[in-house]
């Protein structure tokens, strides 16, 4: 179908409706196209045709209005019907599930540790080395009044705790189960291979549970001048059965 601009060009030389009549063989019948043209080139239509077009416009607007009202009434009626139903019989609303965060390693390979770090682990008779996660420090990880490093469990690449350690993370320091979490004592090696003793605790957050290194974390931040957006690799290993965490600064 030709555009309205094309039609305007075709009738540009016609200055009155009588001239147009001579070019039209069929009797006049109002339509959407005539409505559009009459908005811009009124002189192409007689008074009788303009009246017909005006009536057609009113009729068309009335049909559209009734259709919208009907759809609205149907939605309201449907909502009232659902609200009047017992809760157990109401249809479940559609739920849009958020895609799960998937962490992919390039070529599914564990990153390499620098030679000096491997040597330090060997000196400690360390074993069972595991890559846990790539951590980008947030503001809350380096703020002095927070004093903790968060490690969301859904971002950790593998299980690194024993069953006994997992159970201890849920223990509290009183018998009624409402006291402070006990946590698991961990030795942390900072990027300079200095040792710090910190408690590892599990906190239940809104989106996911997190492991947190607490209490002495500020000392590590200060000693290494960690800042927001600093990137770390976090590893675990064991000396005998004792848990160590290792921070590799990128």
UniProtKB/TrEMBL annotation:
Cellular component GO terms held in the UniProt record: nucleus
Tagged with keyword Lipoprotein: no
Keywords of the record: DNA-binding, Nucleus, Transcription, Transcription regulation
TM annotation in the entry: none
GO molecular function annotations of the record: DNA binding
Main location: nucleus
Pfam families: At2g31720-like (PF03754)
Keyword DNA-binding among record annotations: yes
Highest taxon listed in the record's lineage: Eukaryota
Family annotation (InterPro entries): At2g31720-like, DNA-bd_pseudobarrel_sf
Subcellular location: Nucleus
Protein name stated in the entry: TF-B3 domain-containing protein
Organism (species): Glycine max (Soybean)
Lineage: Eukaryota, Viridiplantae, Streptophyta, Embryophyta, Tracheophyta
């Amino acid at each position: 179908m030709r555009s309205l601009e094309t039609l305007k060009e075709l009738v540009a030389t016609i200055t009155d409706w009588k001239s147009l009549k001579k070019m039209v063989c069929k009797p006049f019948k109002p339509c959407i196209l005539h409505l559009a043209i009459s908005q811009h080139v009124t002189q192409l239509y007689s008074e009788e045709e303009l009246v017909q077009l005006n009536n057609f416009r009113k009729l068309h607007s009335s049909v559209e209005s009734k259709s919208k009202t009907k759809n609205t009434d149907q939605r309201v009626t449907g909502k009232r019907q659902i609200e009047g139903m017992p809760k157990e019989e109401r249809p479940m609303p559609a739920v849009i599930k958020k895609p799960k965060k998937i962490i992919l390693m390039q070529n599914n390979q564990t990153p390499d540790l620098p030679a000096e770090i491997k040597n330090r682990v060997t000196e400690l008779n360390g074993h069972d080395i595991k890559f846990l996660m790539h951590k980008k420090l947030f503001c809350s990880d380096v703020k002095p009044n927070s004093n903790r490093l968060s490690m969301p469990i859904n971002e950790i690449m593998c299980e690194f705790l024993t069953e006994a350690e997992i159970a201890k993370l849920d223990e509290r320091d009183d018998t009624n189960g409402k006291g402070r979490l006990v946590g698991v004592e961990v030795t942390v090696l900072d990027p300079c291979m200095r040792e710090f003793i910190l408690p590892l605790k599990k906190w239940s957050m809104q989106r996911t549970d997190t492991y947190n290194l607490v209490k002495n974390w500020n000392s590590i931040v200060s000693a290494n001048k960690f800042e927001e957006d600093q990137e770390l690799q976090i590893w675990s290993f064991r000396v005998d059965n004792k848990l160590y965490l290792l921070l590799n600064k990128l």
